[in-house]
Design a protein that fits this description.
The protein has 141 residues and is mostly beta strands. The protein is 13% helix and 36% strand. It contains one helix and ten strands, in the order E-E-E-E-E-E-E-E-E-E-H. The strands form two sheets. Strands 1-7-4-9-2 form a five-stranded antiparallel β-sheet, with no helix packed on it. Strands 6-5-8-3-10 form a five-stranded antiparallel β-sheet. The two termini are 22 Å apart. 18% of the residues are buried. The structure holds dTDP-4-keto-6-deoxyglucose.
């Protein structure tokens, strides 16, 4: 599995740091939604789902957390601990977010508006969805 991590350009001077993110430039899609999570309890794991279409960039803008990505064949854990790093999470990718530091703020830039119908919240359904997609691709060849 290829993990795509973006390192954004901080504009630092003697006042501190500033990171600017523009759609289709720093972020590879049009940003339709921004949300963030904070005050995540100790030992909490969030996520446990995949998306059919949604693409996202996850940025831990304060503190740290870890993201487990699973494409149905391989799993990888990616630490997020720098406010200038963004993890790209494609569609059809199971994700779990965990090991949040008490001060963690995880911000997400999303390519679509919120749509519950885009979620796959059952792991077996996720695996079946991946298999179906592969079969469709094989039929095309
Ligand atoms: C994802 C990971 C990284 C909304 O009303 N609008 C929104 O845009 C979002 C994202 C959530 N909500 C509501 C739905 C639930 O009642 O907020 C509540 C918590 O959402 P959820 O349980 O889906 O949160 P996570 O942390 O499990 O997952 C979220 C995103 O939903 C998901 O798309 O990829 O963060």
């Amino acid at each position: 599995m290829q993990v795509v991590k973006y390192v954004f350009q901080p504009h630092g001077d003697d006042r501190g740091q500033l990171v600017a993110l523009e759609e289709m430039k720093d972020i590879p899609f049009r940003i339709k939604r921004v949300y963030y999570m904070y005050d995540t309890g100790a030992g909490v794991t969030r996520g446990y789902h995949a998306h059919k279409s949604l693409e996202q960039i996850l940025i831990c803008i304060h503190g740290s957390c870890k993201i487990r990505l699973d494409n149905g064949k391989e799993k990888k854990v990616i630490p997020l601990e720098k406010p200038y790093e963004g993890l790209y999470v494609s569609n059809a990718m199971w994700r779990e977010m965990f090991d949040f530091s008490p001060d963690a703020v995880l911000m997400v830039l999303a390519s679509e508006l919120y749509d519950e119908a885009d979620y796959i919240r059952n792991y077996d359904e996720f695996l079946a969805y991946i298999r179906d997609n592969e079969n469709k691709e094989n039929e095309k060849e």
